[in-house]
């Protein structure tokens, strides 16, 4: 999946010759997003994932709480998905009076019109992954789909994410649990439509050239052919 995961295998004692790094890709040809050019002031931030601690929902909400404390109110976080951590996330939102800023959408069918509509309506895609005691991410599929959709992505230096996002070019990256810098990154994109478009366009170009499923299939076939040849 990523060089970072390769290192994990090496640390466990796996022989280097037995490891091939390969990212599977996403079906970019199916992702056709028509963004509506609007002058509305409300900034829509999208989190689309399974509701699990590793996805960083509480990290994101702490950053948004810091932004709200600055007197900024013209934003809305849409949390799309379901999972065992939903109760804790909702409790945090209520306990910190963040209800006016957060919509819980629930699950949507993968690659359905409703799924793509979430990308179409969003201004920023937020996926601040964090390590937990038992889990960490590789390269989140929804993050790559957001890149294909031309959305500016804010994420973390975590797992394989830095291998597909170049900070300040194809997305913005912060350290895990750095609430202050995550808030700054979100605010920077909220305040600058040109920057959102610039990063989103560069993310789309990178994804189309490197992360499409068909491209990755050819790379996987090459690995198989080399094994057969050996």
UniProtKB/TrEMBL annotation:
SUPFAM superfamilies: UDP-Glycosyltransferase/glycogen phosphorylase (SSF53756). Residues 35-205 form the Glycosyl transferase family domain. It comes from the Bacteria. GO terms for molecular function: glycosyltransferase activity. CDD domains: GT4_PimA-like (cd03801). InterPro entries: Glyco_trans_1. Keywords: Transferase. PANTHER family: GLYCOSYLTRANSFERASE. This is Glycosyl transferase group 1. It comes from Desulfotignum phosphitoxidans DSM 13687.
